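Hi all, a correction to my earlier message: I attached the wrong file for Alkaline shock family protein YloU. Here's the right sequence:
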Amino acid sequence: MTPLPAVEERGRLEIHPAVLRKIVEHAADQVPGTLRHERRLAGIDIGEAGASARVTTGSGDPPTVDIRLELTLQYPAPVRTVVAAVRAAVGEELAHIAGHRVRALTVTVAGLRSARPAAARLH
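and the right structure:
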């Protein structure tokens, strides 16, 4: 039986930025205090959306990524605490699943929404 070549001689793994984006968005959506919100197009409900990310890959060992992340948070929410938890979760998930390191992470809080449905108003 012929021995396998050393790991570094077997090739390389590249993960498409779209896959990295999905990892980032999923990790952010799992943090307590972040919310998914309904999406509408021309007044028609087209489902829900959560965190939205743009990922730019860099080089290095481990590979680096720059992330621009947009979130909706629960109101009232300790914004700084939730954003810090999102940063930690995204970094851990990217390192664990893809072996990438976050070089820069810009978070934009696009909205604050109540987690409870609004009470019906009487006119």
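Sorry for the mix-up. The chain has one domain: 16-114.
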